[in-house]
Predict the structure of Autoinducer 2 import system permease protein LsrC.
Amino acid sequence: MSATLAPPSTGGAPSGSGASGGRVRAALGHALRSREIAVAVVLLLVVAAATARNDSFLLSGDGWRDLLLTPSILLLLAAGQMLVIVTRSVDLSVGSTMALTAYLTGRLFIDQPGLPIPVVVLAGVAMGALLGVVNGVLVAYAGVPALVITLGTMYVYRGAMLSWAGSDRITADQMPKDFLSLGTSSLLGIPVLTIVALLVVAAVGYYLHTARSGRELYAIGSDPDAARLYGLKVPTRVLTAFVLCGALAGLAGVLHAARYGSVSSSVGNGIELQAVGAAVIGGVAIFGGSGTVWGAAIGAVLLVTINRALPILGIPEFWQRAVVGALILGAVVLDRLLAARRARRLDEERED
């Protein structure tokens, strides 16, 4: 008689159920480790808490519409910022770029009556891309740190905006009604601006995960020196990231004019930091190499929603800013802890 006995059965389930259970546990474990899902859960909790305090926050028609519409501009900026941050750079000039393109939009409608709306939109995007070229060339080819360059161009572009616009304010009655309707109309209950922002986010995500040049952005952010040794066109790819970021900031400026129907020299003040914060909170590593555009988008929605929800929850303005700052600090610390954990795991695998 053989001395080897089969292990006792732990139940009447078929043998395949163990494998299925393992796959379910693995999927749940991956979900729990996903930064995007974690941020989405926080977003849902914030919405639930604000709605419990005041049901008009979500359940009214205006509340649902504002929840979708308000983050749209920041979504575009966060998507562009993500492209730059993933290469170990940052663009602090997006707020000033947005202001210039918003004012350009208004001036084109005033100075060129009858100009087709698509032409104006393309002009704004092209201007944003051109300003992105300036940043990209100086960072990628001159070798100056992106933080220094874009901090400088942020002030240069803002100064150009102040010189150009001065105290002038473009108002809704100076722009076509069809253009302004882009900022107010909806399709199947979803604001058009939200649809545009989601299409842009989807396009950026598709580019990053299917195009070779998109995947190379991650490689450059992970290790720029190794990317050069491998033969990647690092300066060209970094320039591309800045151009795309500028183009999306230009589109954000155009849509800002449509959304608010008014453009002044103060447009976009401080929004560049919100764009960086949205990307970091959404799981984009500040030191490059990892993150998704969907994470940046969820981070943008969370930031805007928190700013709307905290006053409803009775939290003073000081603590509102403190909560946002704590989220950003927590995201950076978590990113560093996860990076250190991955490094230790790689060291252990090498030793084995």
